[in-house]
Specification:
heterodimer, A: about 280 residues, alpha+beta, 4 helices, about 25% strand, globular, B: about 200 residues, mainly alpha, 7 helices
Chain lengths: ~280, ~200
């Protein structure tokens, strides 16, 4: 009897916890990212951010060491390229420093050529995603700076993604390259006017997949596609998204298979600007 | 040598060499928080082909191996909910995965009675990492998500969790107040702690 109770107790616990997990998953689907779940996650981020900042200051160099160790192969080839670049720079007497490049990156954020009339908040990247299954970027400013869920995130050169979660002094951006991201884009076909298509992420480091381009459409290689700014779109018109890297068509297909190389690589960003844009706002 | 096993005493099957009690729960909570900070500040930067280690999954596996199916499931659920607060995948997915992994690994514990501790720990950490990562990916796809680069993710998680398994298991055993099997555990056959 005692043995039976002992062995059934873990099973009962498993049943209860499994049902609780499924209930929470269901509730999170119903609530979305802006409901109760967004609030809970925001509070958790606010509580954790001071610990993260302190620990990051102490443990950051160790993380950088591991990062360097993990990417040793690519660092070697990058090192060779850098040596050539250094030689070229020496020849032209051009001096470059980390501070200067950071200033340049920051200056690029200050003047966004594709959105000159939109107010924006410049933020610094704190960390990447804590998950293997969702690429996100955490920024050091949040609702206190006027950032809201759904606002577009850009760099000095183009679109980065969308704000998906906001805490008091942190915000999380889902990059355009994430598999769950998509954006309406404008393209120019050879001999025709512009058309509308949909660019979807396929994971970090991979090109965007573009759909809804009619068969037979001839696209320019390296042509830049920009946000469409269509009615209801979370992005204003004209933000550079990517350049055409390939286009093909399979027999019987309803649309062309087009890939787009993103203009911005989210993993290499130091600064990100959040456009204080609402879909209903007048786009310049 | 550390050994895992089921001890029979006073007419009842006893799973686990010792009781953890509230002190053990607090220490495990601290270990979980510390592990999360280390994961977030150090190991999130250690990316191999875009994949990063998953120390929290490794911790759940080792706690379950040390404490049995009930503690494994409870700890997995709690840690999973905590992880879910900081990732943008469906809330509760980590909790469900870690609960199932914790329970399954805890069930293995009885079958591994008398085996060499370090070998068992390493093998179970590797297996738990692979099964846990694949399970999470499967649940994510069922929930409507997309998974890319799964091979590298599984490889990275399994590799790092296996390397860290033995030292982490010592921390877990300290935190939960466990001792190796033997006279001490037999002298405390009950599972009275609320944590169990």
């Amino acid at each position: 009897m005692a043995l039976s109770r002992r062995t059934s107790r873990p099973r009962f616990t498993l049943l209860v916890l499994t049902l609780a997990s499924i209930t929470v998953i269901t509730l999170s689907f119903r609530g979305g990212t802006t409901g109760w779940l967004g609030g809970v996650r925001g509070v958790a981020t606010d509580v954790f951010s001071p610990i993260q900042s302190a620990a990051g200051a102490v443990l950051g160099p160790i993380g950088s060491f591991f990062e360097g160790a993990a990417n040793f192969g690519s660092l070697k080839s990058e090192n060779a390229k850098l040596r050539a670049e250094v030689a070229r720079l020496k020849a032209t007497s051009a001096a470059a420093s980390v501070t200067k490049s950071q200033l340049a990156a920051l200056a690029a954020q200050d003047h966004l050529s594709f959105a000159p009339n939109l107010a924006h908040v410049v933020t610094q990247v704190v960390t990447g995603s804590a998950s293997n299954f969702q690429d996100t970027i955490q920024l050091n400013r949040g609702s206190g700076a006027g950032i809201r869920v759904g606002m577009p995130a850009v760099s000095g050169t183009g679109l980065v993604g969308t704000v998906v979660q906001v805490a008091a002094d942190r915000s999380t951006v889902l990059p355009l390259t994430a598999p769950t991201s998509s954006v309406g884009v404008l393209y120019t076909a050879k001999g025709t006017s512009t058309g509308l298509a949909l660019a979807t992420g396929q994971g970090a480091g991979k090109p965007l997949s573009v759909s809804l381009i009619a068969p037979g459409t001839v696209l320019f290689k390296d042509e830049e596609m920009v946000t469409s700014g269509a009615s209801g779109s979370p992005y204003p018109l004209g933000i550079p998204v990517g350049t055409v890297s390939s286009a093909s068509q399979s027999p019987g297909s309803q649309s062309e298979t087009v890939t787009l190389t993103p203009i911005v690589h989210p993993s290499q960003l130091e600064f990100v600007s959040i456009l204080l844009f609402k879909p209903s706002a007048v786009v310049p | 040598m550390i050994s895992y096993g089921t001890h029979v005493g006073a007419g009842s099957a006893v799973v686990g060499p010792s009781s953890a009690g509230q002190g053990g729960a607090y220490r495990l909570f601290l270990v979980a928080i510390t592990t999360f900070v280390v994961q977030h500040c150090i190991f999130s930067a250690l990316r191999i082909h875009g994949a990063q280690p998953d120390l929290m999954l490794g911790l759940v596996v080792l706690v379950a191996l040390d404490g049995g199916p009930r503690r494994g499931a409870l700890f997995g659920f709690a840690v999973g909910l905590g992880v879910d607060l900081f990732v943008m995948t469906p809330f509760g997915l980590s909790a469900l995965t870690f609960t199932l992994v914790g329970y399954a690994v805890g069930q293995l514990r009885g079958a591994l009675a008398g085996e060499d501790g370090a070998l068992v720990t390493t093998a179970v950490a590797a297996g738990g990492a692979i099964v846990g990562t694949l399970g999470y990916a499967l649940l994510l796809v069922i929930a409507g998500g997309a998974v890319y680069g799964l091979g590298w993710i599984v490889l990275t998680v399994a590799l790092v969790n296996t390397i860290l398994a033995v030292p982490t298991s010592r921390v877990v055993r300290w935190a939960s107040g466990s001792r190796s099997g033997g006279a001490r555990s037999r002298s405390r056959p009950g599972l009275r702690g609320a944590w169990r």
